[in-house]
Design brief:
The complex is a heterodimer of chains A (765) and B (158). With 765 residues, chain A is of the alpha+beta class. Chain A has 4 domains: 18-25 and 449-590, Aldehyde oxidase/xanthine dehydrogenase, molybdopterin binding domain (Aldehyde Oxidoreductase, domain 4), CATH 3.30.365.10; 32-126 and 187-238 and 243-276, Aldehyde Oxidoreductase, domain 3, CATH 3.90.1170.50; 128-183 and 279-368, 2-Layer Sandwich (Aldehyde Oxidoreductase, domain 4); 396-435 and 606-765, Aldehyde oxidase/xanthine dehydrogenase, molybdopterin binding domain (Aldehyde Oxidoreductase, domain 4, 2-Layer Sandwich). In chain A, helix 10 packs parallel to helix 17, helix 14 packs across helix 15 (568-576) and helix 16 (644-664) packs across helix 17 (720-732). The longest helix of chain A has 28 residues, at 515-542. Chain B has 158 residues and is α+β, with helices and mostly antiparallel strands. Chain B is built from 5 helices and 5 strands. Chain B has a 5-stranded mixed sheet with strand order 2-1-5-3-4, sandwiched between helices. Chain B is globular and about 50 Å long. The chains are: A alpha+beta (765), B alpha+beta (158). At the A-B interface, helix 1 and helix 16 of A face helix 2, helix 3, helix 4 and helix 5 of B.
Amino acid sequence: MEMPEFQVIGRPTTKLDAADKAAGRAVYLDDLRRPGMLHARVLRSPHAHARIVAVDTARARALPGVKAVITARDLPGRNIGFGLDNPPLKGEKVCSVGDEVAAVAAVDEDTAAAACSLIEVVYEELPAVFGPEEAMRPGAPVVHPEKPDNVSLHYHFAAGEVERALETSHAVVEGRFQLPFVTPCCLETHGVIAEFDLQGNLTVWSTTQVPFLYQKELADALGLPGSRIRVVKATIGGGFGSKLELYPFEVAVAELARRTGRPVKMVHTREEEFAASRPRTPMVIDMRTGADREGRLTVRTATCYMDNGAYNSWGAINPLVGMQTVTSLYRVPCVRYDAFVVYTNNPYSGAMRGYGNPQATFAVESQMDMLAFELGLDPLRLRLLNANRPGEVTHQKMRITTCGLAGCLEKAAAAAELPAVREEGKLYGVGLAGYLHVGGGARVYRSDGCGAQVKIDDLGKVTLVTGATEIGQGSETVLAQIVAETLGVPLSMVRVVNTDTDLTPWDVGTHASRTTFIAGNAALAAARRAKGKLLALAAEQLAVSPEELEITGGRVRVRGREGPGVPYDRVVRAAHFRTGGAVIQAAAYYDPPTERQDENYAGNISAAYSFGAQAAVVAVDPATGRVEVLKVVSVHDAGRILNPLAARGQVEGGVSMGLGYALTERLVVEQGRVLNPGFLDYRLMTTADMPPVEAVFLEEADPQGPFGAKGLGEPPAVPTAAAVANAVYRACGVRVFELPVTPERLLAAIRARGTSGGLRQATTM
Amino acid sequence: MRRDITLVVNGEEHRVTVADGETLLAVLRDRLNLTGTKRGCDQGDCGACTVLLDGRPVASCLVLAADAQGKTITTVEGLAAGGRLHPVQEAFVRHFATQCGFCTPGMVMAAVGLLGENPHPTEDEVREALAGNLCRCTGYGAIVRAVLDVAGRGDGDA
């Protein structure tokens, strides 16, 4: 394919806010203060399940410096969360450790914390339940009386004659895969500042990645009209899904602001961030995959038990994404999927990069390797035989258009080789895993839209006002590139405004790897319209027809005619400074041509799908059980890459999160309590741990994507754990069914194997 | 107990009254309004609050403000000179080494501290020196490339 010539698109472009960030001048929420500002703390439950018998706030109120103390009965609005099962302050009972029972506003943080410790709560402890399967058993403690079996949601999908296929398949592999609690660990913790003006308007400075949904939910929770709420974002220090929903403390802080008439701020401590923000959903997945003699898939079944924790957050719809991978990553004629989203008294799970997909991909891609070994086939060949191809319509009516899965698998496998020099006593292996993820938005709400406005002013400044939220990933920069390329002006002329719901048009939010595709298409459409207006005015001024004009290098020229042309800002000035003048401004709203899934989970929810594959090279030390990852090759079909620097950053960052999931990260939750709420005991990858990551892009333009791009935000974190687990098996013959692969676990497994049959020698793929 | 102390930050003297347990991080951010230094964990585990104390990187959340008296304190705000970013900061911009940016000030200070002691570190030395600074966005690749670029090592590929 011939690459069109672009001036801005596809060129390595530094981040618009990079200098401010490197200089320490970017302003985050915790850097903000308002005149007269108070500080809030919340009192959290020490119990996993208990009735609240009495709350006495008298001593807290009497403490000098305390301005307001609120409990459940002071909140006028409704519950929050998906399914509205979560009271922002708990009045009758608490269902998890860390539940918010009361909130205090005081002159400083220490006073607020001291006041919290003076609130006396009498609890009557209730029997509690801490695992999804345990919670589904008859007679188990009930978390919410409305759901006596503790099953919050059940997802079921089936296609084909599953039982028959299981009986007639040449080979069927099965296994139980267990995925732990892990947590997003944004370097910036959650925070909020709330302030009412005297007209009753509430301004919230928030760390949210979904400002418009946040505005709506906060309004409902406070019993205020949404039109009274303005959401302003400071620079956001990472999201990864954890900032996808309104948190109970934010409602309490807004109420404290209303009662005191003063701005009120609260920022999570790191301990709160670990213990009281949303982790990735832990899952138990029972899976079977069958194939015929040649390796063609015949059947797959999956039953998932998801630990929802005490309330429904957006995590409760994780199965929608996991289901896609089970039914549609590879072509499988018969498939059955069941997911039980089960209430427990654990911390409640939310969205985290990949949204159910890392869990499902771990099981599916582990089984592809298990099946390959069972059949004596090469794992790459088995995958290629079954990989989705362009033109496929999957069981769930997902219409696969551009699809580079096969090419990604081949490239990943080819680039991952065992090291030439190997240490004596260590065992080496290479593992492969593919993925499928939405790449053109995801219609999980009625709209998957985003609005954009482009204004060109008299000094040449181009302002893009977009609904999209920058959370660090670089969307601002990519959107500015799209506008600059479309208008034919230098990137340095484009500014992006995306921080204030009073100004920005509506957007669903930053999730589902959708921003480049959806907000990009909106920005592209608005820029085209603005350009049309500019050229119409220029045509008038130059006495030619608009079709004869183009803008290159910031100058309006007649096509094919030599000469300097007219600077575009002069056209704008001429439009402003005349009787009957005009502004050059245009808006667009892009909502992709997709459909919501029907009650049977069928529907083309994305306008494009992203595919890819990773290969991991590992060395296992059989004496210690330690896994060293030597290299990860990460190959992506994300359409055309608009900013190679940003794309590489997404891949390297995603792989580091995926390696943490594979090897080191685990929130230790016992009796509902997080036992390791700090970075010392919850281990992220560090500079010293990270292997080289090779990022490869197929660069096949998608016809629906802006300049051919598809989504890339979440995918790099999706297949890593499966690739590592498959590499570990190749190295030492131990099949990993539970993450993370800690030295203790692997050593125990190696020893158990050692008694029954010795270690496999490493083999190449 | 509260006491009056003098801190020299980025070449400027500041007289502040601090409580005995008050950390350097709290004084920098809350008293001196130097909010470039980030509070990531307040437990000494993440490195976001890294500043230079007599040229050496320290976690300012673990340093008592009173103990910083008489020492030279450099924060991220003190690196740029004459309106120009420090070479490490410029390299972070060039290599896309900052995404959300919350770890960046601490990361930059740790890198400046390293290069002050060892102007031409190897990649392993860079990785060792920055291992106490956590980043959740970048996977560290661009950060390491940026530091090596300043050190005149590596191929500066990006």
